[in-house]
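Person: At home tonight, work slowly through the protein below, taking as long as you need, and write a paragraph about the fold.
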Amino acid sequence: DFINAAKSKHVNEVYLISHALLETGAAKSELANGVEIDGKKYYNFYGVGALDSDPIKTGAEYAKKHGWDTPQKAIYGGADFIHKHFLS
């Protein structure tokens, strides 16, 4: 999914994977494994919207707001965010 997201969003795949590994502690964080809100899990591999004061809550709320209810949606959505906010 990272490679396909990188290609579709015009972001380097090594960057996407590295960013996700850093933000999720090698996919061990709660955000990488899904945080349950109102009975549904939301994912955030890049820490988008996660504030230092409460990164799990704010990162999960951002994921919910953007519909990242599957790992694939979070990977693609995060890649889109990176493209729009850091590369454009």
Summary: The chain has five helices and two strands. The longest strand covers residues 35-37.
